Every structure is written in structure tokens, then in C-alpha cells.
Amino acid sequence: MVVLVPLRESVNATTIALLQLLVVVLVATFFQRWAALTASILAAFAFNYFFLPPLYTLTTAEMNYIYSIDGDTTPQPPTEASRGIQPSAQGFPTQLLRREFTTVVALRNFNP
User: Fold this and answer.
1) Which end of the chain, C or N, has fewer beta carbons within 10 A?
2) pTM over 0.90
3) Predicted confidence (pLDDT) per residue in 35-72, tens digit
4) Phi and psi dihedrals of 41, rounded to 5?
5) What is the span of the domain harbouring residue 39?
6) How far is it, in rounded angstroms, from Cα 102 to Cα 107?
7) Could you tell me if residue 89 is inside a domain?
8) Is there a domain that residue 78 lies in?
């Protein structure tokens, strides 16, 4: 993983991450489970330490590369204040028609 450090200025961070993923997949294929787990954890930390600004720290300036949970771990149902649009304001004369339309959209978006 450290071998890729000279490529830092000329190659995109996504390409380096994919190369590290390839190394992790090869380790998982040819070695035991603990070796694959160790390789994946080391790859994540090496990617953050060597390739993401600010360099040589385990913090990151970009929100795309943060490895933590946002802290809100319990799901909450939407409240009237948090909804962007009320169901009554969607333009359907009956609730049954709105449900049918939602079902059609869900079936159209289904991608097995």
C-alpha cells in the first residue's frame, strides 16, 4: 500500500482506493480470514493516512471519506414538521389513488 505513495499527485484517490481493494481481495482469496480482515483494516487506515488531505493524519477534510456513524443510531418516524410535503398536498383526490400510484412507482423502480 505504501508503494502507491509516489502516485499520490498523479493518480486520483478513487483509483488508489480501488487498487487497495484489489490487494485486499487477493489477500482474502489466498489467505485466511484473519489476514483478510487485517488487510482491510490496514488498507483503510493507510488510505486515510497516506492519500487523503491533510496528509499523515487520520483525520480527513472531506466528508466523503469519513468512517464514522453520525451518532443518530435510532431510526425515528417522520414527524409533521420534518416532512417536506404533506400527503394531502400531493394532488391525489383519494388516498387509494395515491397508494396505487406509489405502488406503480415502486414496481417501476424495482431492479432485481
Assistant:
1) C
2) no
3) 999 999 998 888 888 877 777 777 666 666 555 555 55
4) -65, -45
5) 2-65
6) 9
7) no
8) no
